[in-house]
């Protein structure tokens, strides 16, 4: 029996590299949504421009492929996505004079079409069409396995799980092509996604509901094809997470669960940091509400308890965002756990431990850089978000910070105590 989690290479993706990777993933997602909006605008027009739509569908597919094939170590491709995304999204007026670029009229039509869908869940037939024509052909091509494996990578928003997903993909892809299933990957295919992101990221509600429907369809399709799967979950609904595990187990899958253990200070900051950096590069960025983050933060513990008491998981591991192992357990002959199950306890221990000097300095430096980037923004609400976000992050982190790191930070950065 393959042991995927044992093959994860700890420490191979961390820090600035992981952040740049996540921002590039977000940029590619924004571009997928950008073209989805343009296509929707033409589909709603009295006389659709079929040639333009064909070009935009090709561009959307190309960006979905680039996102799927992106790895954290591909610095050149990450930089290329940042540049391309900035050109297309941050300054869209430049595209009006490009032959292949969308015209102002096309953009207006796309925005109008998207606005009519605001906060609405798609009709079933439209949802199925988008899944069949745009999601499945790119996102759900893999290698059928005699003994397929699903690795569920779970944790609250902002915890850095994208790096863990990438590490797991590296292991699974040694067996053939695996597929990654995640609502965040499918959400940009919603026709209203880009228009909502342009006005208010917190309004992307209907898109989220459709993304969950597409996730359910994708999981069922992957099981039917016996693909190896990486399934991401933020554990907002621990019972839905468990039900997915049960369905894969019933389909004959080996089920492994990787729970990312991160203190709320780090993940709350991670949400804001990725949002600000995406705004800086692309002009758009998704933002998880604090209430959603906090619900998922508690959901991780409830999910861990479900893993321990239910029977769908063959193997479980608690990991740091860089892949370092905190805890692991697995089933033995007879179906019981190899050691007394204590997954939730391991997560609480990792969340509650004091940070090392190095960890504390990295956090403090990252928060300071975040604040400086935000304060340089020309838009008042971004500056306010940076000030308040930095203050909240430092306050939450204060009990974990190493005092020597705080002293060094004050001395080298010329700032007051971070929690002051």
Short synopsis of the structure:
The protein is an alpha/beta fold. It has helices at about 15-45, 50-70, 75-90, 105-115, 125-140, 160-170, 185, 195-200, 205-225, 240-250, 265-280, 290-310, 345-350, 355-375, 380-395, 405-415, and strands at about 150-155, 180, 230-235, 255-260, 315-320, 325-330.
What does this structure look like?
The protein is an alpha/beta fold. It has 2 domains: 5-352, 3-Layer(aba) Sandwich (Rossmann fold); 358-413. 59% of the residues lie in helices and 8% in strands. It has 16 helices and 6 strands. It has helices at 15-43, 50-69, 75-90, 104-116, 124-139, 161-172, 183-186, 193-199, 206-225, 238-250, 264-282, 290-309, 343-352, 357-375, 380-397, 403-413, and strands at 149-154, 179-181, 229-233, 254-260, 315-319, 325-330. The chain has a 6-stranded mixed β-sheet, sandwiched between helices. Helix 1 (15-43) packs across helix 11 (264-282) and helix 11 (264-282) packs parallel to helix 14 (357-375). The protein is globular. Residues 91-110 and 112-117 have low confidence and may be disordered.
- Our estimate of the beta-strand percent is 5-15%
DSSP E strands, number: 6
* SSE pattern: HHHHHEHEHHHEHEHHEEHHHH
- Shape-level CATH architecture of the largest domain: 3-Layer(aba) Sandwich
What's the total helix number?
Answer: 16
Q: Sum up the overall morphology in one term.
A: globular
CATH H-level superfamily of the largest domain:
P-loop containing nucleotide triphosphate hydrolases
Strand order of the largest sheet: 2-3-1-4-5-6
């Amino acid at each position: 029996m393959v042991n995927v989690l044992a093959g994860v290479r700890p420490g191979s993706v961390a820090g600035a590299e992981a952040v740049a990777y996540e921002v590039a993933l977000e940029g590619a997602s924004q571009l997928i949504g950008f073209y989805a909006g343009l296509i929707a605008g033409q589909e709603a027009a009295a006389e659709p421009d079929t040639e333009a739509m064909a070009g935009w569908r090709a561009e959307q597919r190309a960006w979905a492929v680039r996102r799927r094939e992106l790895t954290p170590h591909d610095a050149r491709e990450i930089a290329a996505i940042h540049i391309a995304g900035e050109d297309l999204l941050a300054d869209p007026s430049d595209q009006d004079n490009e032959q292949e670029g969308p015209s102002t009229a096309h953009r207006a039509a796309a925005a109008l079409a998207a606005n009519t869908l605001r906060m609405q869940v798609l009709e079933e037939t439209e949802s199925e069409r988008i899944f069949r024509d745009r999601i499945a052909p790119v996102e759900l091509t893999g290698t059928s396995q005699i003994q397929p494996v699903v690795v569920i990578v779970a944790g609250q928003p902002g915890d850095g799980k994208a790096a863990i997903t990438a590490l797991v993909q590296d292991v699974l892809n040694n067996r053939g092509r695996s597929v990654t299933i995640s609502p965040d990957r499918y959400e940009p295919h919603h026709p209203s996604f880009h228009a909502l992101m342009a006005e208010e990221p917190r309004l992307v509600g209907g898109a989220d509901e459709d993304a969950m429907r597409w996730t359910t369809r994708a999981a069922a399709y992957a099981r039917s094809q016996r693909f190896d799967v990486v399934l991401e979950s933020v554990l907002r609904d621990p019972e839905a997470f468990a039900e997915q595990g049960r369905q894969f187990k019933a389909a004959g899958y080996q089920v492994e669960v990787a729970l990312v253990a991160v203190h709320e200070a780090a993940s709350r900051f991670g949400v804001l940091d990725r949002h600000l950096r995406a705004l800086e590069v692309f002009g758009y960025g998704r933002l998880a509400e604090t209430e959603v983050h906090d619900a998922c933060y508690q959901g991780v513990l409830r999910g861990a308890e479900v893993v321990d008491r239910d029977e769908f998981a063959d193997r479980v591991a608690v990991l740091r965002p860089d892949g370092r192992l905190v805890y692991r357990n697995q089933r033995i002959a007879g179906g019981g756990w190899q050691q007394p199950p204590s997954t939730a306890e391991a997560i609480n221990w990792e969340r509650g431990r004091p940070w090392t000097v190095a960890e504390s300095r990295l956090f403090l430096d990252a928060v300071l850089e975040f604040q400086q980037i935000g304060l340089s923004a020309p838009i008042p609400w971004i500056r306010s978000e940076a000030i308040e976000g930095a203050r909240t992050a430092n306050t939450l982190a204060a009990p974990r910070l190493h005092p020597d790191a705080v002293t060094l930070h004050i001395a080298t950065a010329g700032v007051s105590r971070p929690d002051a």
